[in-house]
Structure prediction request, 845 residues.
Amino acid sequence: MVRRTRLAAAFFAATLLAAPSSAQDLAIRCGKVLSVNDADEIFSPGLILVEKGKITYVGKPREYPASVPTVEHPDGWAVPGYIDLHTHIHTGGWGDINDMCRNVNPELRAAAGMRPDNRLMQVACAGGVTTLFGISGSGTNISGFGLLYKTKTSRSFDEAVLANPGGMKVAQDSNPGRLAGNHAFGRSRAGMGWALEDVCNRALAAVRQDRFDPSLEDLKKVMTRELPVLIHTAGSEGVINTARMWKNLYDTRCVVSHGSFDGWKAAPALAEWGMPVNHGPRTMDFYSSRNGRINGSGAEYVAAGVPTFSLNTDSSVMPQEELFLQGSMSARLGADSYQMLRALTIHPAKTFSIDDRIGSLEPGKDADIVVYSGDPIDPRSAVLNVWIEGTNEYKREAGNQRF
Amino acid sequence: MTLPRTTLSTRSFASAKSAGVCRVGILALALALTGLAPAALADAEGFADGAFAVCAAKVLVCEEEGLAAIDQGVLLVRDGRIVAVGGVDEIAIPADHEIIDVGDSWLMPGMIDLHSHVGGSGGLNDMVFQVNPGLRVGTSVVTGNANLVRPLAAGITSILYIPGSGTNIGGQGVLMKTHETEFEDAVIRNPGSLKIAQGDNPKRWGYRMNRALMNHHIRYALRQGKAYAMRWQEYEEGRASIPARHINLDVFRDLYNNEIAISTHTQYFQVVLATMRILRIEFGFPTFIDHGSFDSWLLGELAEEIGVPAILGPREVMFPRPGRFDTDGRVEGSAWGFQKMGVTKIGFNTDAPVLPQEELPLQSAMGVRYGFDNSTMDAVRGLTIVPAVVAGIGDELGSLEPGKLADLVVLTGDPSDPRTTVERVWIRGETVYEVSEEVRLW
Prediction:
């Protein structure tokens, strides 16, 4: 644990960019401020103060200099900007996310297809989604390395991007086998498992021998826990295999992504081994019970106690702006609404160790703030205002609703 | 503008309105009748067969105009029909009624989706001919099929199962129940509508037609059909000899008599305008806009004037698409738009399986998100009484008014909130779904 924190800190110090200086100082007064901090403090009414793109105060209303511009939302609810760790909208569409000549591609980076400030990002921002992990598809076992970025108006790649690479994308189970075709090696689970272990072992050997290998440099960072790995996996057998390989065998900073169908049946083991789950876009299981009973898989993972349970859209499988709805539907099927707010904010931040910057409304963190007209997990509530790093990126006024 | 003979205020389309007025009278009569129930029908506990009362924290009555909801309400059911509805202090529960107290939960009418393709085994598009008014999708109905199990558990009790949009006239839809039963019991009305598709899909799947030729096809068929219906009317009034039967044209008699409506796949300003001009103004048939996506809402004023309701979905928003639509970058909700233009009958659809059939209520939530005013529970009416009236079954279904069939749903709160879950469903007074620890289907 100590080693993980130190490495993560070193990594972010090296790669993260300072917040833009264009952001103004700001005071936001709201009917409710949901800080989503460790104490789950809610201030009603509440005040948020922002300086140079960072939050300086969150709490009950207090005195502040009259020169600071104030935004008032007497009935609004302020929450941290949402974070989605499984997204594909960085290219502005479905194109350019799968290179499928080989089944392991650890040298590829999704950043090559990045188009900052595209239309899908603009709508995502209007839906309160401020930070994304943009990744390649699940057409191959290792499709490459993704990038962490914000959905802000940016004039350049560097302004939008938090970290590149931000982590690796692995796909186990179904898609890579299906897309590989009938005669390709690696179509079966056994073949996929062999291919992944083989490349991981080669990367570990390169680490041990301190040997430079241009195709394995990023993967070496996964094997040494410098970068996280997000793993497309589903079904109880898929999830447990993923955990056995990436957690127990290689002890990487691995995250189950999807975990759909009856994957939740592996949840007690994941909880015991401390493996985070990033769940979606399917958050319900109506296949595994014999009497047709529907199981809320989100609720099952939470109940089993997996660490930092978070939700995803797999955008554009689900529209990026509808990330909150994954929380609504999980709540429908048994999860607690407030816990789902954590699953959209602080949990994904902790999952990728970026909670020093985002994920909650706390002094020192980026001023990524969303104000809703009401309960953020209720689809009838609208997003009224979105700030990213203190800059107002979306404002819903009469005639300007984007989502 | 002079309107043709037909209007929507005829027997089947407007009777829901008058039911609200005579509510008190029916209530008094019903209570008098229940006192006379023969003792032989009572069971061991003294309850009459098929007689029960539901007490709920909120009863969504869903009258078309008027009462939307009653706090702390009671609903009396006897022999599959609603006998009385009111506040707990207004309604005396007869001694032979089993009392079902659902506590904090809410009670509402079964929901109705007028655009569904999951009622059977498919066969929705016969695409040899461009107009097929004689084809009946009722031939493929599979009652209570696997795709209807979750919708029923979601409180959706009735659907209009219709042909696809591969041709300009796809054929006849069927209004049916979602629970598993005999075909004759499942069918509410067959034909339940005539499906016409204008714009996009028939053009895409056809043989390089454009709108002019498609509209010519539609007008040609409608002209034949209306003439056929008029000949039959002359015969029935004793003014002509019996006409030759033509099964391709029989459906137009139902349309001409206002028994059913045309469910029209139509979207975009100019396509919806053609729908209203041709189907409603020129031929006078009961017609509703089905889809009504993109910039259709701009025609809301005309739609209301000539009595064309809007059943919206599955796409309920217009996203800014520079170059194609003239917008300033904002999202425009269809329901918001039609409401803003003064349309009074606004409902929602899923086009299932385009959206899952069970997610019909979510369509109303998204309508509210995009600005649809829900201060008088119009989102819930759009799932219940509006589709019932639009489909011509508003005298039997769509609200909790005395005399109507007891299609009831008990749920944990507002149906438009997806966190609300369904606890029990009745169709015609029979329990067809009940949630339990072991079985929760949606």
About this structure: Chain A has twelve helices and 18 strands.
